[in-house]
Amino acid sequence: MTEGYISKQHGQPVKRYCQTMDLKDRPDLIKEYRRRHSEKEAWKEILEGIREVGILEMEIYILGFRLFMIVETPLDFEWETAMARLATLPRQQEWEEYMAIFQDCDPSATSDEKWKMMERMFHLYD
Questions:
Q1: Contact 70, 59 (CB under 8 A)
Q2: What is the edge-to-edge ordering of all strands in the sheet holding 57-63?
């Protein structure tokens, strides 16, 4: 993990959104949550929907039961509009229900309600 992660280059300026959510603090559930998000197991329709609403990249990091998500978008991306559209796309609600048993939040919440937007409080000032 100390080698770092290579960032995708988008060939354009991007906005970055950072969000967090907690999983239930149960190693068996966390293991299964990770499996369901693996390249082999992630649902094609969900990945396509994320891209369809304009998201260029989405990464989820984990430490214990805490998740941290980074979302990169074009500068003209409108979060509320995209999340409302995402919630209506094929299998999105089914995916939310499929993941709800792992998440330490209201199981009937949308993805946008479960993930809490984080505030950037520091960067290397120019």
A1: yes
A2: 57-63, 66-74, 14-22, 116-117
Q: How many CB atoms lie within 10 A of CB 103?
A: 21
Strand partners, 54: none
Closest by CA to 117, choosing from 41, 5, 49, 16, is: 16
- Rounded to 5 degrees, φ, ψ at 55 are -75, 130
Residue owning tokens 């499929």: 98
- pLDDT band at residue 107 using 50, 70 and 90 as cut-offs: confident
CA 15, 21, 27, 33 torsion-angle sign = negative
Is 50 in contact with 108 (CB distance < 8 Å)?
A: no
Determine the average pLDDT of the residues in 54-80. Answer: 98
Q: Which of 41-50, 89-98, 104-113 is predicted with the least confidence, judged by mean pLDDT?
A: 104-113
Start-to-end C-alpha separation, the chain: 28
Residue 57 bridge partners (DSSP):
72
Judged against a pLDDT cut of 90, whether residue 126 lies above it is answered with no
